[in-house]
Specification:
transmembrane, mainly alpha, 85% helix, NAD(P)H-quinone oxidoreductase subunit F, 112 residues, transmembrane helix, 2 domains, 3 helices, membrane
Length: 112
């Protein structure tokens, strides 16, 4: 084996410049932390939303089961209200953005 005059230099070379420890403490630690974070987000947030939709569907079905009246107008009204609520829910970000633009435009016209 080759001997270096300095013990520190000898240890640095003999342990491959500590690259395995450096790799473990930087890259592996960062990937492990990121994987744990995304796993938690998937487990509690994404799966929670999916489970919430399932529960809403079950409870909605249970409550609608008792509201059978035999009148097709009531069924049509329920469907139209449901589609309207879904449409408003899906368009809300766009509508709120449009409301800000209209408000800013009206404010600008009243000031200037």
């Amino acid at each position: 084996p080759v001997r270096f005059p300095s013990k520190v230099l000898q240890d640095l070379v003999s342990y491959d410049f500590y690259t395995p420890k450096l790799y473990r403490s930087s890259i592996v630690l960062a990937v492990d932390l990121l994987s744990r974070l995304t796993s938690w987000f998937d487990k509690y947030f994404v799966d929670g939303i999916v489970n919430l939709f399932g529960l809403v569907t079950l409870f909605g079905g249970q409550s609608l089961r008792y509201s059978t009246s035999g009148q097709s107008q009531f069924y049509a009204l329920t469907i139209v209200l449901g589609i309207t609520m879904l449409g408003l829910f899906l368009c809300f970000p766009f509508l709120s953005h449009m409301a800000l633009i209209v408000t800013a435009s009206l404010f600008q016209q009243s000031v200037g």
